[in-house]
Amino acid sequence: MNTMRKKTMVKIVLCALFIAMQVVLSRFLSINLQHLKIGFSFIPIMFAAYLFGPAGGVAVATISDLIGAIAFPSGAFFPGFTVTAALSGLIYGFAFHKNCTTWKIIVGVVFNEFFCSGILNTLWLSIMYSSDFKALISVRVWQVIALSVVQIVFAEIFFNRLKVAKKLKNMAG
């Protein structure tokens, strides 16, 4: 097998692994309340974005959201959440893929959490449940702040402090 085909196969296998991980982390290992979701489902999307850039982040986030919604629904399907997932993968891809610095991690995570989770997902929830957006965001802002801190620490450790992510990136090409 030539080198190019081998690297393509590694990318496909890693993306499939990240999709499976994201579905499990999101659907089975998260705390899901009506207006709050707390968990670590961001990890596979961050890794896909780190390794494969915006396209990889969008692909893993979108496909895993669709598979999770179809195979393990936790309520009515709402396409807004899939759009938000794709945007998250895109934001992480631009922030983490090339020259992943602490500053880029902070900006990427904060923008993603406040815009995607804080504003967009709150908007989708307010539409789905006919809830007041302002009342809902006042509850969700604490989740956004807490998860921003968790994600920044995680990304800094795995992408800038540990050599595992860099070795994986070299293997994936």
Topology:
Blueprint: H1 3-27, E1 31-32, E2 37-38, H2 42-71, H3 79-96, H4 102-128, H5 133-161, H6 163-172
Helix pairs in contact: 1-2, 2-3, 2-5, 2-6, 3-4, 4-5, 5-6
Give your account of this protein's structure.
- It is a single chain.
- The chain has 173 residues and is an all-alpha fold.
- It has one domain: Arp2/3 complex 21 kDa subunit ARPC3.
- Helices cover 80% and strands 2% of the residues.
- It is built from 6 helices and 2 strands.
- The protein has a two-stranded antiparallel ribbon.
- Strand 1 and strand 2 form a beta hairpin.
- Helix 1 packs across helix 2, helix 2 crosses helix 6 and helix 4 runs antiparallel to helix 5.
- The longest helix has 30 residues.
- 35% of the residues are buried.
- The mean pLDDT is 89.
User: What is the helix content?
Assistant: over 70%
In total, how many beta strands? 2
| Second-tier CATH architecture | Orthogonal Bundle
Order of helices and strands: HEEHHHHH
Global mean pLDDT = 89
Oligomeric form of this entry?
single chain
What global shape is seen? globular
CATH class: Mainly Alpha
Structural class: mainly alpha
Overall number of domains: 1
Strand order, largest beta sheet:
1-2
Main sheet specs? 2 strands, antiparallel
In CATH terms, what is the fold-level topology? Arp2/3 complex 21 kDa subunit ARPC3
Strand content: under 5%
Defining key terms:
single chain; mainly alpha; two-stranded antiparallel sheet; 173 residues
Summary of the model, kept short:
This protein is mainly α and 173 residues long. The protein has helices at 3-27, 42-71, 79-96, 102-128, 133-161, 163-172; strands spanning 31-32, 37-38. The chain has a single domain (3-172), classed as Arp2/3 complex 21 kDa subunit ARPC3 (Orthogonal Bundle).
